[in-house]
């Protein structure tokens, strides 16, 4: 239990002061129970003539007002402060995760599914947001409030206070059992929620395929995930029910013990007066009120413990580190020195040695799976080399500050992703301070201004998630406009025209010419017209550079490049038979 509270406390980070204040308010709220206890004592003593009635009425009313006002003020302050601390704490953590994810290697997203990340950032953090403040504040405040009440009770009647103390200890033992049960089962529930989130995302992203190919059974994975989540929630609840009932039974037993002891003390042992006996009977229902309130929250500790560990696991991802000493880019020349790279045990690039001159156009060709895309992804440090090094302008990219490195590189991906925002903001993503005039200039260069202006809302048109309301060519041109606006000196193009029709390809190639003018360009290419224009061609096969040179040089050599050209020339010469 203490470890769980330590996790919450550490998780709260810079919100510790707010939590500390909320705990103090909770404790002060509990202290006002003393006023209620004094009011009960005075009222009963007055009924038996042991206290002047007129004075008793004034005292009870004063204590009642004192209790009501005090509880209202400190309960309000406690809830407001704890709510602010909870929302602020999780908000801070979400911002932190945003920075962490930005600085993670792409390989992390292969091992840590998007569904799991989504589950942590939404469901798991929402649980922490609402439950952690209550658990920490109610439990600590409840325990302190109960202890203060017991101290007062010890002065009034030590025997009953001792029974209450034993009841408190027994209750905490049962609650600890409850925490162990939920801590055992909560990770299974968390895993089921992650699977549900992943299945829901997969189902929505593939809804077109589901409708077209597997309308009847295409949602099987989602249904299984829903059922799995339901089963784990039921198992968690059913596992904790016995301990919850036991906790209530323990309190009832010790409340009964207080009543029984009070009655015996009056009837058999004559150690209590009738009025004191009545006071003790009433106090038996008050003695455990704060503890019972704290215990209801303690049942969530196991779930919270699992949620916090799941969330903290996200912070353990490997981050891109800038090695010392820092180095800075002096030119746009890119050099690979004996570079090798593996995905796990699968080596995809082996002993790559090549130089890409500043201002040159380099085309990379090779069969599918040869390592072309990986080679390009190593330049902006989407992954780090396993052996060798990559230099840009004489600086090892592992020593270049990330912001400086990324400011020098623009990447136009084969699979374009547009944000669910306006076209204007999607283009301006390349330069957040850009004006509309600058955005339109970039769009005109990318051959997309005309079709954007033809839309009803123009540049204010809202792009649907992933750009689903735009064609492939339109999305590609918008992404090129984004790169033009960024105006980075090094451009990486990943098979940008491979999935386009002839008309869109023509427009995109024209846009690429605007983008790449006076730049250092690395393009994964598959069309003859593109490759022929290259200053430098790299042919990759099985993760190795097998040929390198210009179009004219390689065309007359036997090898992968000549085969590449001849295959495409043959394909372009086909025609339909009459």
From TrEMBL:
Keywords: ATP-binding, Cell membrane, Hydrolase, Membrane, Nucleotide-binding, Transmembrane, Transmembrane helix, Transport. Its EC number is 3.6.3.-. Its main location: membrane. GO terms for cellular component: plasma membrane. GO terms for molecular function: ABC-type transporter activity; ATP binding; ATP hydrolysis activity; ATPase-coupled lipid transmembrane transporter activity. The chain crosses the membrane at residues 21-47, 53-74, 135-154, 160-179, 245-266, 278-304. It is found in: Cell membrane. Residues 22-301 form the ABC transmembrane type-1 domain. It is a multi-pass membrane protein. InterPro entries: AAA+_ATPase, ABC1_TM_dom, ABC1_TM_sf, ABC_transporter-like_ATP-bd, ABC_transporter-like_CS, P-loop_NTPase, Type_1_exporter. It is an enzyme of class 3 (hydrolase). Residues 334-567 form the ABC transporter domain. This is Lipid A export ATP-binding/permease protein MsbA. It comes from Dorea longicatena.
